[in-house]
Structure formats: C-alpha cells, structure tokens
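In response to reviewer comment 3 from the previous cycle, which asked for concrete evidence that the modeling workflow produces usable outputs, we include below a single protein chain processed end to end. The sequence was submitted unchanged, and the resulting structure tokens are shown without manual editing.
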Amino acid sequence: MDYVPGYNKFRAVSMILVIAELTIPLLAVLALDKFIKASAKNETFTLPFTKMQFDLKKVLIISVAVVGGFCLISAFLPEMTNSFIPAGEETQMVNQFKQSGATDAQIAQFMPDFLANIQKARESIFTSDARRSLMFIGLASIFLFLYLTKKLKLELFLVTLSIFLCADLWPVAGRYLDNKNYVPKAQYDAPPLKTQADEQILQDKSLDYRVLNLSTSTFNDAATSYYHKSVGGYHGAKLKKYQEIIDFHLDKEINGFYNGLNEAAQNDSLMRIHMAKFGVLNMLNTKYVIVPAKDQVFAIPNPQANGNAWFVKNIKTVASADSEIVALYGMNTKREAVIQEKNKGTFANSYDNDGKITLQSYKPNDLVYETDSKEKGFAVFSEIYYPKGWNAYVDGNLTPHTCVNYLLRGMELPAGKHKVEFKFEPQVYKTGNSVALIGSILLLIVVGASLFFANKKKEIAF
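The workflow returned the following structure tokens.
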C-alpha cells in the first residue's frame, strides 16, 4: 500500500493480491525448473541458516513436511493458523445494523449467534481447502519422488503435473465463474425494456434534453442512459462534485417536486410554476421527468429547462467552493451565474443576455454549438467542467473557459454568429500512447537480442 504505485487508488485495495497470484505460481515454476536441472546433475544444497549439505531427496522431504504440515495443522487445528473474526469487524457489523434501524437490545440478542455462525462457516471453508491442498501436495510429492528416483520419465512427469494443475485450478475457477455466469449473446445484448415514457420522450428528436427518471433508483440505475441522456445513472467512480450537487440540491428539489406533484398534475400552469423551482435541475437541462403511476410510468415535459447553453445577464463572485454551491439556492440560473473569485479573471459583472445558443452536433468527446448575439455575452454550458483534457474553440481558435455554478462550463463570447466547439483532447492520452509504443519497441528489441545471444551461445537452436 505504501510502496506499490497506484494500489492505494483502487476502490477495493485487496486488488493487491494480484501480486501474490502472479509471483507465487512464478516461484513454483522456477522451483520446478531448478528441481529438474538439479536432479540431472545430482546437486546438493545448503539450507538457509545451516551449514549442512542435503541432497535433493532430503530437500524434497523437508519441503513436503513444511508445506504439507502447515496444511495438516490448518485442516484439524484451524485456529492455530488463521483468525476468522478479525479485530474491528464486530464493531463494523454493529454499526451497520444500527444504520439499518436495529436497536441495541436487538443487536445484543442476535449478535453472538450471528458471529458464531460466520466463524463456523469460514472455518468450514478454510479447513476444506486445507484438506484439498494437502491431497494435491501429497500426490505431487509422490510423482516428484518417482521422477527423482528415475522411475518416471520427464515427459510423463510434466504431463502428470499439468493434469494436477488443471484438476486443482478448474474447480476453484468455477467458484468465481460457472455456467450460470455465461448467457447467450442475444440475451446479454438485449436492450432494457422500453417503457411508455421512453417511447414518448424518444419522439423528441432534438439534441437539447436530459431525462430525470424517478421511477427507479435515480442515482443507482444505469438503464435510463441506454435511451436518453440521463441526469442520474450509476458509475463506480462518480465525480465528487456531482455527488455534492446531488446531496445539496438535487435530492431537495426532487423531494419538493414529489410533495407538490398531485396538485400540480391537475393544472399545466401549476406544473410550470412547480418546475420553475428546479433551479439546479433546470441548470442541468432536465427537459423530461419520468414518474411512476400505479402499474406504468409516464414522462412529464419540463418547459422550464435551461437548454444545452444560454447567455446570462449577471455574474456573482464568491470567495470559495462552499460559497459557490450554497449560492445556487434560490438563484435564477437562466439569468445569473456564480463563479469563484479565483476563476473570475477579467469577466464583467453584467452582460446583455439577449442571445441564442444552439447545439449543432453531440458526441461524448466533441460538442459543437452555434451562437448568435448582438453584443458580447457570457455563456453557461450545461456540461460538466473538467479542465484535464477539455479544450474550447471559438471559430477554430483555442479559447479559455472556466468553471461556473460549481460544476458547469462558462466562457465569454464575442458578438455575432460563431461556432463554439468543445473537444476532449487529453495530453496524458497522447503521451501514454507514445510511451506505450516506445515500450513495445524496446520489449521487441530485448526479446530479439535475447534470442540472438542465446542462439549464439548454443543455449537454443533455431
């Protein structure tokens, strides 16, 4: 964790076990290679911390005794070699039960039996694998001994060990991936079930909309994104800024929408007034809201959505990110924008917002807009601001843009008609490709040189 680059960045830091999964089998392969070569030369060995000489037969017996002995103890006295309830796990379980609503009395009543059952299950798995490993160690040692005593030819010996490897690894691999994990390609590629609401929204062929789906777990469901640009969705590495917008604003706006939905659904004017309160949802261009109703779902259009981009009249400057996210409460995002002082630069405090911006084409890494305004203005784009890779161009000229409204893009635009384009062009990607190419070339050179010199020394022959 402290010395291997990148391993403290994993979502599951247990991924570092990959190192053991690679190096331990590699050590076994090297040991087998040494065993075969030493057997042919009748080598002797000096064990670490001793000055005693041992022949290969005694080394084999000692190895089997050490590794097999560990498995034997683990199989019959598992508490001596393993701990099945790690320190601190009981406290974590108690906290989880409290979060789920269990009382202290309930936890105290079932926790002892719960921990005992967990320990029993873990011991059973551990001892079962220890006995299994002991069996394979015993079988392998027999064939190693037979080869060592010249009663088994090398070819048959290697074939036998290969069979043991398959017999050992195949069932273990089946614990992780079995037939149930494999489904027909047609079934896997089948799209999510299209609802009546999806059909209704898909009739809108414009590019300028996003969908808020309240008929599912909004921020833990990815199916909506199959058909629409979604305000919600799921990703294992969600942007922290977006999660903070959810916590500070979206959850509150969604709850407020639910509270007034029954009344607003009876009148279009009330619904428009209700949706006008979507300060941040409108800023995120939420043009449709999918809501559940008995056995079906339906889509409610939101005419108050700000669109893909718009000109604002006033810019409010604040000192910090905390002030910026708080300033969004009650702000008219169609006419105003908030920006941190460090991002303000030379922008004015007010502009003429009488202009128009339309999205001409949309790709995840390339967005093209057309602007038309009588005077210079400040535009807000309903896309996440991410400086590492995104570049903005006005009529093909690289133009700076900045972060506004806590997580969106903003930039000053000149008067008249212009083409604005955002491209994702991360330098690290280009550099990484170059480094990978150089590394591949060097690897081929090293492999080629190794084969050349090995052939020259007669270690191998072509």
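The chain has four domains: 15-181, 196-301, 309-425, 430-462. We consider this sufficient to address the reviewer's concern, and the full set will be provided in the supplementary archive.
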